[in-house]
């Protein structure tokens, strides 16, 4: 793998850019791998990357039925934050956020991490109390956040309307080192680094069956033939129920559509990320100038990667109240992704009833921010059988009543 | 946009008029049941890619609960039927079988 650098840009500039090589290989699958990761999205590729980097396991295949990073990794609103109430959540999301800080240097690929700051608006008395509590919890967890008053919100976001008719802005939870990153680049950077370690990333290869013998996983059947493995990691977000059924167990998740949309590009007007959870609207401005807007999930099970129009309408209606200028924006495009939601709105990073089969799923509506931390914990769990970061996220927690209840903490799907 | 016909008032309601109520025909397990049954009842929802049986409520209409048979992969609606049943009626099963031969959902088959 040739390193990217200012020198490389200059060198290629002098020879008509003929020397750039493909960022990752596209090999045919081998007969056997030590580890197969199903799903070449951010979480899957990050798992493979940290298996190689932290544990020296490089005989790894990452199998993807579509194209790399084409699922929720390429469909989210790229928000990165770690201001969670519950300790296990704050630990893994803060691990992820801190890894994002050095990610571009780590794998010599610019993921455009922009720690521009994230405000979560408090627009009801309930939220004011909730976010003050979260700020105190974050202080104990070592996550830097603070409660800010409306005047400070206005200072940070001049386009905001504090005196909304239904939901006035009563303050906010401010995380100065939260922000955004380029979502595709995160997947591409991990893929390039994995490929450089000798791992095989196999796209357009759908898993059709998971083979087990005596309660132990032995391999998968795919549209490119059978592949054997010692361990398998299922990291397929919305399709995790379908895949787990192939291996003979069930997961406590339901798949629903989540939508986002972007406006036409406009001049810089908002240099922080604003989340308004009461009204289900998130907004940030991309480097191209588009306002990137995310909303809430649809209320029924869905695998179609498209959502209902009225949810978009609700999201935009809510944002128009808080940001009156949005009413003059044209929206360029809108899309949906299928997210897998658990009962307590926290993910599963877990062993399963099948020996050698691990699952990383249930990230619901907020998985992008967790990619590096999730991969880190999943790799540790797969390599050693135990991870402190992942321990609380076991799928057994529902039976034990040890929920990580972020749905209550956020008052909303997050 | 999802459009379901309410089996009670006959209105073709689009989804803003309706509220999804999740998996249909749940068997309830409470005190005295095994941990596994209670756990599955509380947390293990059917999440198929394909034929799905659900509860819906005509919330901004007649207000009544009913059942729907639907495909989660295409959003196609096969049938809606009464809430007063613990399994899909034969004619609903037949309607699903006409579109998805060999379907199965939990213990029910075409």
Give the key terms.
heterodimer; A: 414 residues; alpha/beta; 8-stranded mixed beta sheet; 31% helix; globular; B: 110 residues; alpha+beta; Folate-binding fold; 4-stranded antiparallel beta sheet; two-stranded antiparallel ribbon; 2 helices; 17% helix; 32% strand
In short:
Chain A is an alpha/beta fold and 414 residues long.
Descriptive overview:
The complex is a heterodimer of chains A (414) and B (110). In chain A, 31% of the residues lie in helices and 27% in strands. Chain A contains 12 helices and 18 strands. In chain A, helix 2 runs parallel beside helix 6 and helix 3 (87-106) crosses helix 9. Chain A is globular, with a radius of gyration of 21 Å. Chain B has one domain: Folate-binding superfamily (Folate-binding fold, 2-Layer Sandwich). Chain B has helices spanning 35-43, 90-99; strands at 3-5, 12-14, 19-23, 51-57, 65-71, 77-82, 104-105, 108-109. Chain B is globular, with a radius of gyration of 14 Å. Chains A and B meet through strand 12 and strand 15 of A and strand 3 and helix 1 of B.
The percentage of residues in β strands of chain B lies in: 25-35%
Number of helices of chain A: 12
Radius of gyration of chain A, CA atoms, in whole angstroms: 21 Å
Sketch the topology of chain A as an H/E string, one letter per element: HEHEEHEHEHEEHEEEEHEEEEHEEEHHHH
Number of domains of chain B: 1
What is the strand arrangement across the widest sheet of chain B? 3-4-5-6
Helix/sheet category of chain A: alpha/beta
Overall CATH class of chain B:
Alpha Beta
Structural class determined from secondary elements of chain B? alpha+beta
Fold topology:
The complex is a heterodimer of chains A (414) and B (110).
Chain A: H1 6-13, E1 32-38, H2 42-55, E2 60-63, E3 79-80, H3 87-106, E4 118-122, H4 125-141, E5 146-148, H5 150-156, E6 171-175, E7 179-180, H6 183-196, E8 200-202, E9 207-213, E10 216-222, E11 225-234, H7 240-247, E12 253-265, E13 273-276, E14 281-285, E15 290-301, H8 309-322, E16 331-342, E17 348-351, E18 357-361, H9 371-384, H10 388-391, H11 397-400, H12 406-410
Parallel strand pairs in A: 1-2, 1-11, 2-8, 4-13, 11-18
Antiparallel strand pairs in A: 3-7, 4-6, 5-6, 9-10, 10-11, 12-15, 12-16, 13-14, 14-15, 17-18
Helix pairs in contact in A: 2-6, 2-9, 3-9
Chain B: E1 3-5, E2 12-14, E3 19-23, H1 35-43, E4 51-57, E5 65-71, E6 77-82, H2 90-99, E7 104-105, E8 108-109
Antiparallel strand pairs in B: 1-2, 3-4, 4-5, 5-6, 7-8
